[in-house]
Design brief:
10 strands; alpha/beta; 6 helices; 4-stranded antiparallel sheet; Rossmann fold; binds adenosine-5'-triphosphate; binds magnesium ion
């Protein structure tokens, strides 16, 4: 069976800084994967490679058997949070999501509102994103990654800046997604999130991914 996501022998460096050397990873559909690693170890770089935003020097990334940069430019149907997402500061949360939804034009305004409620944002609030708190911005980032029912979620530190109730809510949402057959890869500096959610956990070690659970 073809892997959903497969990284083969990927090496990556920036100038003289080595990030990965002959990295391999196989991701199956319908499971939750956690990635651990200290600041600067390459978690966000890994996610950018999986999404086709950057390329390794020699290896390849295959999505359902199709090589990124060769037979496929970007993966289809991925919901992604990597680093700080850019927002239109002078628009409301709803307006920001609406702008994004108009690119593909496949969801209704009602779906946007329901997604905002699901992650704990008020869809009718008049507040502009520039005055959002960190946690509210994080919820908006989660909303954009899931609102189109993306089947694969690549979430770089999705729990950042969330209060305890919100963490529980997002954990539950991700578990439900897994039960619906979605695939999730996420990073966290919090072991509890990783242990609660993940089928498999990898740590970045020695420029590669080491299976730790
Ligand atoms: N575009 C780039 N140009 C040069 N160096 C880069 C670039 N992107 C990342 N790096 C370097 O690669 C290393 C890994 O960065 P990355 O952002 O993946 O770390 P991280 O594991 O996500 O860290 P954090 O936990 O702080 O988010 C860092 O040393 C970073 O400076
Ligand atoms: Mg990072």
């Amino acid at each position: 069976m073809t892997c959903h996501i497969e990284i083969k022998n990927a090496s990556k460096k920036f100038k003289d800084i080595k990030i990965f050397e002959n990295l391999n990873l196989e991701v199956e559909k319908g499971k939750i994967y956690g990635i651990l690693g200290p600041n600067g170890s390459g978690k966000s770089v890994l996610f950018k490679m999986i999404c086709g935003f950057i390329f390794s020097e020699n290896g390849k990334v295959l999505i359902d058997g199709q090589e990124l940069g060769v037979t496929k430019r970007f993966p289809d149907n991925f919901g992604v949070i990597i680093d700080r997402p850019g927002y239109i500061a002078n628009k409301t949360g709803f307006e920001n999501l609406k702008e994004l939804a108009m690119i593909e034009n496949k969801i209704t305004d009602d779906k946007i509102r329901k997604t905002m409620e699901l992650v704990g944002l008020q869809p009718t609030a008049k507040q502009k994103v520039k005055s959002y708190s960190l946690g509210m911005k994080q919820k908006l980032a989660i909303a954009q990654a899931i609102m189109e029912d993306q089947q694969t979620l690549i979430l770089d530190e999705p729990f950042n800046a969330l209060d305890a109730d919100s963490v529980n809510n997002i954990r539950k949402i991700l578990k439900d997604f897994k039960n619906q057959g979605k695939t999730i890869i996420f990073t966290s500096h919090n072991r509890e999130d990783i242990e609660f959610l993940c089928d498999k956990v990898y740590a970045i070690n020695n420029y590669q991914l080491e299976l730790v659970k």
